[in-house]
Automatic annotation (TrEMBL):
This is GTPase Era, mitochondrial. Residues 142-145 are annotated as: G4. Signal peptide: none annotated. It is a peripheral membrane protein. Residues 262-264 are annotated as: G5. GO terms for molecular function: GTP binding; ribosomal small subunit binding; rRNA binding. Residues 208-232 have a biased composition (Polar residues). One of its GO terms (biological process) is ribosomal small subunit assembly. Residues 73-76 are annotated as: G3. GO terms for cellular component: mitochondrial inner membrane; mitochondrial matrix. Residues 18-284 form the Era-type G domain. Residues 52-56 are annotated as: G2. It comes from Circaetus pectoralis (black-chested snake-eagle). HAMAP family: GTPase_Era (MF_00367).
Length: 391
């Protein structure tokens, strides 16, 4: 009731409100919901290793002083073929596009730990960017902590931006002294393209330094010792970013304004990105009351967290056929939240997998989901899960 009242209420506007609507897009499982949760400071979006954990667009709200960031967490951009394969709702295909229509800024998330996909933006992402070239876009390289050889990041930046950032040409200059006998680890400091306010107007340099700079400090674990490695931006006649482009042989997007490198799961460098987003906000009325954290109802948050655990513990395609029915949702005598949910599955074999030997799987799901719900709702939660066959 309180959540419904806060969403219904007029926002408590400050004197000079500022707002920024941010669409986070990327391939499935790039870490969009993890990044959203880190920006919000609390876990309100479901996260799992399986693709398509996020099934619909949901909004998160960050209110800081006179500024409101509205984060549009969207399903991973996917093709109609894959949507059919995972029994996904049609909204999974349209929601990311709808989010783009309402966005002031788009964050394109790339999982740099996936060596199969990291060298190019997916066709769906490129199509989305090409369709909305007027919306400022920022490249976010996620999961950099999982890269052993950080020099790969220099190559990825060049490929994913087509060598152009903020209308300026990037040059990668590197001279390596190969030292195969040495096992010494040479630190590599890469400073991302930061907001213009923070840059020296005389220099547009992303380069290696002896001391850690503000930005990602990344260890290089290869047996190469870098004597010089830098990304230099030069004035360039940048490509026109005003209309759809031919995407047939396109790998990157030359219209990114900034680049950030982070590890969303551990919160590394998320604050740097958050500060940048707050600075990009423009004067405008707030959409939500400052007490709102998400546009989702408590029941939707609960459903999402339980589904996240089901996805985590069931193999392959099985969890995508589970239907959730909430049978009880009430407050107990001591203020605790009592929830009973029935999980309906299409086959007896799925039922056995979900229950597990001696009820171990379903018990673990209930325990972990209950703990997450306590962290979200900030109260005691008693969660009971039942498993039945679909009638």
């Amino acid at each position: 009731e309180e959540q419904a009242r806060l969403i219904r209420d007029q926002p408590d506007q400050p004197q000079n409100p500022k707002v920024l609507r941010i669409a986070i897009i990327g391939a499935p499982n790039a870490g969009k919901s993890t990044l959203s949760n880190q920006l919000l400071g609390r876990k309100v979006f479901p996260v799992s290793k399986k693709v398509h954990t996020t099934r619909c667009k949901a909004r998160g709200v960050v209110t800081y002083e006179d500024t409101q960031l509205i984060i549009l967490d969207t399903p991973g951009l996917t093709s109609p073929f894959k949507a059919k394969r995972h029994k996904l709702d049609k909204a999974m295909l349209t929601d990311p596009w709808d989010s783009m229509k309402h966005a002031d800024l788009v964050l394109v998330l790339v999982d740099v730990s996936d060596h199969w996909t990291r060298n190019s933006l997916s066709k769906e992402v490129l199509k989305c960017l090409s369709q909305f070239p007027q919306i400022p876009s920022v490249l976010v390289l996620n999961k950099v902590d999982l890269l052993k050889n950080k020099f790969i990041l220099l190559e990825l930046v060049t490929e994913l931006t087509e060598g152009i950032v903020n209308g300026k040409k990037l040059e990668v200059r590197s001279a390596f002294k190969h030292n195969s006998s040495s096992s010494a680890k040479s630190p590599l400091q890469i400073t991302q393209a930061f907001p213009l306010e923070n840059r020296d107007p005389e220099s547009h340099c992303v380069q290696e330094t002896d001391q850690a700079q503000e930005g990602s400090s990344l260890d290089n674990t290869s047996d190469m010792r870098a004597s010089e490695s830098s990304l230099v931006t030069e004035e360039a006649e940048g490509p026109k970013c005003s209309g759809p482009r031919d995407l047939k042989n396109t790998k990157g997007w030359p219209c990114f304004q900034e680049i950030f490198m982070l590890a969303a799961r551990h919160g590394e460098e998320v604050d740097t990105l958050k500060r940048y987003l707050l600075m990009q906000a423009k004067p405008g009325p707030w959409e939500f009351h400052s007490g709102v954290l998400t546009s989702q109802s408590p029941q939707e948050i609960c459903d999402n967290i339980i589904r996240e655990k089901v996805l985590e513990y069931l193999p392959l395609e099985v969890p995508y056929g589970v239907v959730q029915v909430t049978e009880m949702w009430e407050e107990g005598p001591s203020g605790e939240l009592l929830i009973v949910q029935n999980l309906l599955v299409p086959r007896k074999s799925h039922m056995m997998m979900l229950i597990g030997r001696g009820g171990k799987v379903i018990s673990r799901i209930a325990q972990e989901a209950g703990q997450d719900l306590m962290n979200v709702f900030l109260c005691d939660v008693r969660l009971k899960l039942k498993v039945d066959m679909k009638s």
